[in-house]
Amino acid sequence: MDKPLLAYVIDDNPDFADSMALMVRHLGHQSRVFYSGEAVLRALEEDRPDVILSDLVMPGVDGATLAQKIKAAPD
Question: pTM for the full model?
């Protein structure tokens, strides 16, 4: 592996999100944890992850809507 990847882990269940992020870090990568789709959309203004691991069923911006918004972004 040349360089660690940055993974965004998104889940409204904090225990699951934190556990998944820990596993990502254990595999030698970096992770940022988010508990809502809205928080991810704000974070994407600052940096770009290499991988996004998202729950599909969340209140507010769910995983499917989040994916559509990311895909529709011009950059």
Answer: 0.90
